Structures are given as C-alpha cells and as structure tokens.
Amino acid sequence: METRDFCIGFLIGMIEGEGCIAKISHTIKGKTYVYPQIVIENTDKQLLEKCITCLASLDITVHLYYNKHKENHPNWKNSWRLVILGKKNMNKVVSFYSYKSQKFEKLIELNKYS
Q1: Cβ-contact 45, 81 below 8 angstroms
Q2: The model's pTM
Q3: Cα angle 93-55-48, degrees, rounded to a multiple of 5
C-alpha cells in the first residue's frame, strides 16, 4: 500500500501530465445539469490501475472505460479512460493541490458551476 502523500503526488502528476478537465452538461426533462469531470486516458492499463488504487485510498470514486480504437483506426492503440465525476470528488482533488497550475485553476472555475 502506498502512502497518502505518494498517492496525492501521483494523482496530481497524472492529472497534470495525462489529464483533461472539462465541463459536461446534460439536459433531462428540460433541466440542464452541469458538472466538471477529470479524464485520464492512457494505453497502459497498469498505470491507470495504480491510479485507481491511489484514488480509492483517498476515497475518490472513479469509473474506468475501455476504448476500442483499433476497430475504426487499425494503426491506433486501444486505450483505457479513467473518469472522476461529482462535486464531492472534485472538492477532494482540489484540496490536494499545493500549487496553482492552469489545470488547477480550470478545475476551480468549473467546480463553481456544478
């Protein structure tokens, strides 16, 4: 089991290096729901499994999806997509940052509207 500090550093490194922070919106029965999400996509499943282990130890819920790129693009590698959703999870991620990067600022901005 990795230490809490290792997991926080690993998570921030993955978000900064491989991650994407985006605003997602869905309209259901005329009401629009807006929330931020963090996506980390990579072809190395073991790397994302390590990320999931660290996130679980920090009590952050994630979803892992498999992307079959090779079906439509024979020269592309298949990849896995790790998705972090929810205001509770975003607040935890924000609390781990000890410096203000551009991705951190984007996460703060998007989290205001969720």
Answers
A1: no
A2: 0.79
A3: 115
The distance from CA 24 to its chain's CA centroid, rounded to whole angstroms, is 13
Half-sphere exposure of 83 (CA within 13 A, CB side): 14
Cβ distance 58 to 7 under 8 Å? yes
Residue whose tokens read 């990849």: 79
- Residue 27 CA to residue 34 CA, distance in Å, equals 9
Domains along the sequence of the chain with CATH: 4-111 (3.10.28.10)
With beta carbons less than 8 A apart as the criterion, state whether 85 and 63 touch: yes
**pLDDT per position as a tens digit, 53-103:** 999 999 999 999 998 766 778 888 889 999 998 888 988 988 887 767 877
